[in-house]
Amino acid sequence: MVIIPKLIDNIKNTFKGSYLLYPIIIIVAIPLLLIINTFWNLRSFNRDINFLIRHQAVSVTDTIKPQVVRMLKDGSNLNELLTQTRDSNSEIISITVIKELGNKIVVVSTTDKEIELGNLEKMGLNQLAVGFNQPVAGLSYDAEIGKNVWNVSVPMEKMDDSNYLLFLKFRVDKVEEILGRTARDSYIILAMLILATLVLLINHFIFFRKAQKTRELEELDKLKDEFISMAAHELKAPMTGLLGYLELLKEKISPSEKEKIAEDFKILNMLIKDLDKLINDLLDVSRIAQGRLKIEIKDVNVNVLLEDVIKTFIPVASQKNLTLNLQSGENLPLIKSDPDRIRQVVTNLVSNSIKYSLKGQIEIASTIKDNYIFIEVKDGGIGIPASEMPNLFSKFHRVKDRQTIEVRGTGLGLWITKKIVEMLGGKITVESIYGTGSKFSFTIPLTA
């Protein structure tokens, strides 16, 4: 058969390269094994029950055989024995004693009226002739009671040099009831196993389809990152040239003309710097995603670094009537880390505080605790809604608020900040009350 190999090849091709192949095989195989095992147990159970009933019937027949012999010798009626002999799981319907008389079989005594009338075929004696030599038991359907009965024949001791045979019929209502109930329960379990298997398969294939969608989205995200990287690199060179030509243009313009367009130059310079920062952010996103962001370990004086960052923001803060306040930690040691990356993190946090603060002051503090430098940037700005906190450090996420609509940004700054802090071996946290302000804190280990 070539169909099965082709089917297996199709399945392998469908799940080729998928980590779901082996779980699917396991999920399919285990229920199938359980179903096969249940079928086998049902078959064995029926066989064992039949054996037990047959053995029980023969055993009961052997038990009452001495009483039958005694009653025959005494000339007693077997009906008395019939009423006396009842088994807990079986009920004797009739007792018959037959013997061989030459080439004939005759009834010596019986409690079965139909047999008294000479209907020996009802006993199946033509099939049970071997019963004169060994016990025989078998099932047959009794039309009178409308149920299966057990026919059992057991050889008896010889009397008057003739072979005698004890023939009993048993009802097995209780045993059949137990057998039926157990079989029903087994079939219910089997049906539940089949249903559970179908549910598992359906759920797994749904999960597989979702996994496929996830992989497609991951591939699209990868393509997006590659496009961002390519676009950022292509834009970086023209941007550098544009900044150079802007400075060159300033030198060529006469002082009188320069005063007239000073404000225009200022705006143009600000726009170019914003665009340059965007390109640098995109490049950082690409480098972080591809694991190419370099960390250069040097000696770092944290307080000096913070002072340098604050000096660059004083003009921008003054335009919004904001005060920058540095609380330098005392006796901070030199640490082993990347000063440029720490400066980038602090710059991002201070820049955000200035953008989202309308008045008051911005506090930058540094302390040392447990082999870590703690740096905090606290402002009295508009704060962050609680609903935005879980996604605050996500890529391209921006706080959606009526007060932030006019603030420009890409939603990359905090994502880059978090990644850099983690690459330096630290952690970053945020506390914020909407309408009151925010405090960003991050740690840097003393040694990388």
UniProtKB/TrEMBL annotation:
Cellular component terms, GO, for this chain's entry?
plasma membrane
Its catalytic activity? ATP + protein L-histidine = ADP + protein N-phospho-L-histidine
Compartments where found: Cell membrane
Domain Histidine kinase, which positions? 230-448
Primary localization class, coarse: membrane
> Does the keyword Transmembrane belong to this entry?
yes
What protein name does the entry list?
histidine kinase
